[in-house]
UniProtKB/TrEMBL annotation:
<feature type="coiled-coil region">
    <location>
        <begin position="36"/>
        <end position="63"/>
    </location>
</feature>
<dbReference type="Pfam" id="PF21082">
    <property type="entry name" value="MS_channel_3rd"/>
</dbReference>
<keyword id="KW-0472">Membrane</keyword>
<feature type="domain" description="Mechanosensitive ion channel transmembrane helices 2/3">
    <location>
        <begin position="584"/>
        <end position="625"/>
    </location>
</feature>
<dbReference type="InterPro" id="IPR022249">
    <property type="entry name" value="DUF3772"/>
</dbReference>
<feature type="transmembrane region" description="Helical">
    <location>
        <begin position="403"/>
        <end position="427"/>
    </location>
</feature>
<keyword id="KW-1133">Transmembrane helix</keyword>
<feature type="signal peptide">
    <location>
        <begin position="1"/>
        <end position="25"/>
    </location>
</feature>
<keyword id="KW-0175">Coiled coil</keyword>
<dbReference type="InterPro" id="IPR006685">
    <property type="entry name" value="MscS_channel_2nd"/>
</dbReference>
<dbReference type="InterPro" id="IPR052702">
    <property type="entry name" value="MscS-like_channel"/>
</dbReference>
<dbReference type="InterPro" id="IPR049278">
    <property type="entry name" value="MS_channel_C"/>
</dbReference>
<dbReference type="InterPro" id="IPR011014">
    <property type="entry name" value="MscS_channel_TM-2"/>
</dbReference>
<feature type="transmembrane region" description="Helical">
    <location>
        <begin position="209"/>
        <end position="231"/>
    </location>
</feature>
<dbReference type="InterPro" id="IPR049142">
    <property type="entry name" value="MS_channel_1st"/>
</dbReference>
<keyword id="KW-1003">Cell membrane</keyword>
<feature type="domain" description="Mechanosensitive ion channel MscS">
    <location>
        <begin position="627"/>
        <end position="692"/>
    </location>
</feature>
Length: 807
């Protein structure tokens, strides 16, 4: 590495001094040699650390060791990145000096002096060596990041394997042995950590820091208790005074209650940490413990805050959920109890992680927290059921329990029973994992519930024509109430889809590798941050994840399709055929995307789907070509829409209404209410008559035969008046009468009028015939009967025979 010494000598030389001949620069070598040597030593140290970490990772066997190694890789990566960033200005400086010297002169040009040539060569060599040093630093950083990713993979694999281990029942002596016979090394580490905490406590209560510590603790307690109450009261007053009437007040107050509890606890814990860190900085172990307690406290505050917001005991009339007051009052202690249990046992786990507790001690803590939390979870539905039965015996008015509420209670009871059973048979880690997963899922669903209700109520209030904001939008944008309603639907859908996507990501992110409540909170922060979403890679390898993805995707498609067909499209598009085509096209594309996403969730890479394409090509050649042809034809019908739902078409001598365009065939309802199934390819390849395409009008034509001795003008007026008086006949184009034929049978007159739709032709023609016959009888105008026509034909034939005979 000593070969890099000239690089840093020249780098710092040119940084600190203007360009000068090398003879003058050599006098400054001694002033920068130490800094250059430090950087060279840093590169050596980084490479050595990386090699050492790789060796330690291959020998690591516990999760705590892997965690510390991962933190070391992050620190190494940050150091290498900083070194590369520090060297970048030197590169720019060298490049600027080379630009001043300019390129070498071309052959035949003016020759340069030897000192300039030497200086350019030196700068080029120095810049090349400096670039190599930067590349080496970046390579070390990349290697550290890759090693960190490998450590995470190892932790995930170790966690999955740990779930399948049987560590002994909680009733066995092996489970309680760490408490009865603690290991000496572990006790020493615990005593050292306790000594550090005691020193920090004593230092914070020294005379010069005593009053400041006391004030900060009092302020923290006041903010956590009285401050939360005052802020909630102020927001409630604000809602009553300024918010419009409706559900927005309740949803806002519920969300605000949870957030006030969360942020109040966060601020109070920050003040407490500041109170004890003022006297002296925390040692590394205490600092890790303090950060963990901060995250754990926020997590517990989230449990308590969502529980308070859901029950809404201070304002029962503002409660969002249809929950009886007696049941809500009986459930008031469960969320604080869960929060306290999570705080207590989470703190114990933090201590175990900091001191590197043994496996037996860790299993003991996991079993205790899983058992106590499972019993609390089991008591929740049992308590609600007991209160409901008491109310029923007292014949009090109580709402019937919904199906969703019953499903939630059953799932909680089953999960609690599974957790307790797992503890009895010895699967401690699985029981603890399931406990925190159940709490995590409940928190995510409750947060999603409050956020969706608030987003829906907010959009409804903002775009309502009865609120100040809605009236302002209506006036400024010059829109109607119908357009405001459409904006409400669109923005509500955007908010719900965004929250639903966030919920899915949160649930899946918390479903693997989550072992402590503080890591759950880290995932919340990671999900809510832009960098977290950018770096999140969800590649689960389990079939269960794929099934969950398929179920959730199917539900989203059904809900979105119902929303499109019942809410958005009826208020934006009046044509029922276009609406049906858009819904069908959305459904087909959605299911295709859902299948692809499910395959990706299973871990099937896109480049591994070549065999599927090959199999499909063979299948198409041997029998699937008709199905594929009809499917493609269906997509053409849905996009080009030569035939859409609601059209009256004729194909193959049959006429009927298009009722549905499926993936393979189209359903046509005939006049007798029967349905004809026509493959989509026939609608593309054959001649199809679309009677209603392009707002086509119906033509009603009636031809009548009259005797020769009638008054044609009188009959024409009768026919025109009959058409003009009928309400379905359009004024434009106006009806008209044509003298079709004058023959031996009589006079044939045809009258024609137009109606709004070809569907009205049959009924209109029938009504007009009844009316025309009535008017003709009133005017004593007769039609040519079939007997008269036959008689005239025989008479003409007889006259023709007589003329022929006489001739």
């Amino acid at each position: 590495m000593m070969k890099f010494l000239p690089i840093f000598l020249l780098t710092f030389l040119f940084f600190g001094l203007p360009m000068a001949p090398l003879a003058n620069a050599a006098t400054q070598t001694a002033t920068v040699e130490l800094s250059a040597q430090d950087i060279t030593t840093a590169l050596k140290s980084y490479q050595k650390q990386l090699d050492t970490l790789k060796q330690q990772v291959s020998k690591a066997s516990t999760d705590s060791q892997l965690t510390k190694l991962f933190e070391a890789t992050q620190s190494l990566s940050a150091g290498a990145e900083k070194l590369a960033a520090d060297l970048q200005p030197a590169q720019e400086k060298l490049q600027a000096q080379l630009d001043v010297l300019g390129p070498p002169p071309e052959a035949g040009g003016m020759a340069e002096t030897a000192s300039v040539v030497q200086q350019r060569n030196t700068l080029n060599n120095t810049k090349k060596q400096l670039d190599d040093a930067v590349k080496r630093s970046q390579a070390i950083r990349t290697g550290a990041l890759d090693l960190g990713q490998q450590i995470n993979d190892l932790r995930r694999v170790a966690f999955k394997s740990q779930l399948a281990l049987n560590t002994g029942s909680i009733l066995s002596t092996q489970f309680w042995s760490p408490k009865a016979d603690p290991q000496s090394e572990e006790q020493v580490r615990f005593n050292e950590f306790s000594q550090q905490l005691q020193e920090i406590w004593q230092g914070s209560w020294q005379e010069e820091w005593r009053y400041g510590t006391l004030v900060l603790i009092i302020v923290a307690i006041a903010i956590w208790s009285l401050g939360r109450y005052l802020v909630e009261s102020f927001l409630a007053w604000l809602c009553i005074r300024y918010f419009p009437d409706g559900r927005l007040r309740r949803s806002f107050m519920a969300l605000a209650t949870a957030l006030i509890t969360l942020f109040g606890t966060t601020f109070a814990l920050s003040l407490v940490e500041s109170a004890f860190s003022r006297a002296q900085p925390f040692p590394p172990q205490v600092q890790d413990f303090a950060e963990g307690v901060m995250r754990l406290g926020i997590f517990c505050a989230l449990i308590a805050g969502l529980g308070r917001a859901f029950l809404s005991l201070n304002r029962p009339s503002w409660r969002l959920a249809p929950l009886n007051d007696a049941i809500a009052s009986g459930m008031r202690f469960f969320s604080p109890l869960l929060a306290m249990l999570a705080l207590a046992f989470g703190s114990v786990e933090l201590v175990n992680n900091v001191i590197g507790a043994s496996l037996g001690t860790t299993i003991l803590g996991n079993g205790l927290v899983a058992a106590l939390m499972a019993m609390v979870l089991l008591a929740i539905p049992l308590r609600a059921r007991h209160i409901r039965r008491q109310l029923e015996r007292q014949e009090a008015h109580i709402e019937k329990r919904s199906t969703l509420e019953g499903i939630v209670h059953i799932l909680i009871m089953l999960s609690a029973v599974v957790i307790l059973f797992s503890l009895l048979i010895g699967y401690i880690s699985f029981a603890r994992f399931l406990t925190y997963q159940l709490i995590w899922i409940a928190l995510v669903l409750m947060a999603f519930y409050f956020l969706v209700l608030f987003a829906t109520d907010l959009c409804a209030a903002v775009f309502s024509p009865h609120t100040a904001s809605g009236r302002a939008l209506k006036k400024s944008l010059n829109v109607r109430d119908r357009h405001l309603e459409q904006l409400t639907i669109i923005f509500t859908a955007i908010a719900k889809c965004s929250l639903l996507l966030l919920m899915i990501v949160a649930l899946i992110s918390g479903s693997f590798g989550t072992t402590t409540p503080n890591t759950l909170l880290q995932k919340i922060i990671t999900i809510l941050s832009g960098e977290g979403l950018k770096s999140l890679h969800i590649v689960p390898g389990k079939l269960l994840d794929a099934v969950i993805c398929l179920v959730i995707g199917s539900y989203i498609l059904r809900v979105t399709r119902r929303w499109l067909s019942h809410e958005l499209l009826p208020k934006t598009i009046s044509d029922i055929g276009i609406r049906a085509s858009l819904i069908t096209l959305f459904t087909n594309v959605g299911y295709v995307l859902l299948i692809l996403i499910t395959l990706a969730t299973l871990g099937i890479q896109w480049n591994n789907l070549a065999w599927i394409v090959s199999a499909l090509s063979v299948g198409i050649g041997f029998g699937l070509q008709e199905i594929v042809k009809n499917f493609i034809s269906g997509l053409i019908l849905l996009t080009e829409r030569p035939v859409k739902v609601g059209d009256m078409i004729g194909i193959g001598g049959v006429e009927g209404d298009v009722r549905r365009i499926n993936v393979r065939a189209t359903e046509i309802q005939l006049s007798d209410r029967s349905t004809m199934i026509v493959p989509n390819s026939q609608l593309i390849s054959q001649n199809v008559r679309n009677a209603t395409m392009g707002n086509a009008q119906g033509v009603v034509t009636i031809a009548l035969t009259f005797p020769i001795d009638i008054d044609p003008e009188l009959v024409r007026d009768i026919l025109l008046n009959a058409y003009r008086d009928y309400e379905s006949i359009l004024e434009t184009p106006a009806p008209y009468v044509r003298f079709s034929q004058l023959g031996p049978e009589g006079i044939i007159l045809s009258v024609t009028g137009y109606v709004a739709s070809p569907r009205l032709v049959g009924s209109t023609k029938s009504d007009l015939l009844f009316n025309i016959l009535r008017l003709l009888r009133e005017q004593q105008v007769n039609l040519s009967s079939p007997q008269e026509v036959v008689f005239m034909k025989h008479r003409e034939k007889k006259l023709a025979d007589e003329e022929e005979h006489s001739s």
